[in-house]
Structure formats: C-alpha cells, structure tokens
Write a structure and sequence with these properties.
2 domains, 5-stranded mixed β-sheet, two-stranded antiparallel ribbon, 42% helix, globular, Peroxiredoxin_BCP/PrxQ, redox-active center, oxidoreductase
Length: 245
C-alpha cells in the first residue's frame, strides 16, 4: 500500500477524569457544627429563664406543703381546745380513793336525796343512759332483785339518769322497781361522777350518758368505779365488791 492511500488511524481521545468534589474547609464544617449545637442544646438544656422559673416553682412547692400542714394542725388544735373547754366534754377526773362529789336531786315519788342522807352507809350509784330501754331495764331489774342482799351488807342503791321524774316513775311502775331513781336533767351529777361524755352509735358521734357504776364507802370515799359497764352479771359483781369492803 502506498503512503498516499494509507489512512491514518484516529488517535484515541484521552478520557476525562471525573471532577473531584471540592474539599470542605475546616471553617465551614465548624460553622455547621456551631449551628447544630445550639439547636440540640435547646432541646436538652433549659434556658436560663426557664431554669430560674423552675427554681422558683420548686421553692414554692417546698414551702407550700409546710404552710398547708401548719394551717391544718392549727385548725385541729383549735377544734380540740374548743371541744375540751365545753362543760359537757370535760371529764370529772374522779378516781378511786377520792371524796365522792356531793349531790342533792329529786327522786321518783317527789322526794329529794343527797349524799349526806347515806352517811355511815355504803352507797352504789348506777348511771344508766335512758329509762325503759332494753339494757337499762335489765340493769335496774337486776339491782332490784339483789336489793335485799345489798341492804344486808349495809349498802344502799340509787339509779341515776337524765330522764324527767315522770319518765322515772313510769319506768319504776312498769317494771316494779324498788330502788330509788334520781332525775338529773341538768347533767350536773352525771358530769361530777364522770358519767357524761362523748359516745358513738351507728357511725354518729354525740354527747350522752356513759353507763357507769360507783361504789362509795361509809366514809364518803370512792371505793371502786366501773366504766363502760356491760349489763350481764354486773349487779352481782357490784354486790360482791360491796360485801368485800
């Protein structure tokens, strides 16, 4: 082949190298990091204003219960003092060995009785809540049944409640009671002997007569006090105590 007719083969074109991404300068990366940090910090760390408000609310939370507690205790104390200051709520402080409080009150039949009427004798005073109720009826009947035995041991017996004379006489006639029944409608004797105070029944709290029995010696001193009496066998127990003196 001649030089003229020989064609030159095309030379391969050089491949273009891919463009490299420009390197990030340390300044731009630090700027982005700085931009990200405040956003994250806002999520995780409260601002100064919020922190101050939270601190104040915490202080208020700490102080507030103390105020409420002191206020409640003050009210409770006031209530207790008021209750204790009322004459009906005060206890007599009567104890065994103390002198029996004097009394003079009307009894069934229209007469009056006093502590001095029984000087030189032992005396039983049984305080009952209300005439002609089941427990009080049984108690009065039991003391009537043992009246002769009490008399044989030089002991008199008196029943005391806050009922009117009319109610006491009806009670006596209905059950043929032989022991004198005293009417203390003003509750003065009941309070003096600690037989008046707070009671509860069916979830209700009120003031009333507490079933109580007191044995007084011939010298006018308290020998024994039975409080919160249970009626069954009580009269027999009191008789035994009177005989033992």
């Amino acid at each position: 082949m001649s030089k003229k007719t020989r064609k030159k083969s095309p030379k391969p074109s050089p491949k273009k190298a891919p463009k490299k991404a420009p390197k990030k300068s340390p300044k731009s990366s630090s700027r982005k990091a700085a931009a990200v940090q405040p956003a994250n910090a806002a999520k995780t760390r409260p601002s100064k204003t919020r922190a101050t408000a939270a601190g104040k609310s915490r202080k208020n939370d700490i102080k507030q219960p103390g105020k409420a507690a002191s206020g409640a205790s003050h009210k409770a104390a006031t209530k207790q003092l008021t209750k204790a200051s009322s004459p009906a709520a005060r206890t007599s402080g009567l104890t065994e060995g103390a002198a029996a409080p004097a009394f003079r009150l009307p009894r069934d039949g229209g007469d009056t009785v006093s502590l001095s009427d029984y000087a030189g004798k032992k005396l039983v005073l049984f305080f009952y809540p209300r005439a002609d109720t089941p427990g009080c009826t049984k108690e009065a009947i039991d003391f009537t049944r043992l009246a002769a035995d009490f008399a044989a041991s030089n002991t008199a017996v008196l029943g005391v409640s806050g009922d009117s004379l009319k109610a006491q006489e009806s009670f006596r006639n209905k059950h043929e009671l032989t022991i004198p029944l005293i009417s203390d409608e003003k509750h003065e004797m009941l309070q003096a002997y600690g037989a008046w105070g707070e009671k509860s029944m069916y979830g209700r709290t009120f003031e009333g007569i507490l079933r109580t029995t007191v044995l007084i010696g011939a010298d006018g001193q308290i020998i024994r006090i039975w409080r919160h009496v249970r009626v069954d066998g009580h009269a027999d127990e009191v008789l035994a105590a009177a005989k033992a003196v």
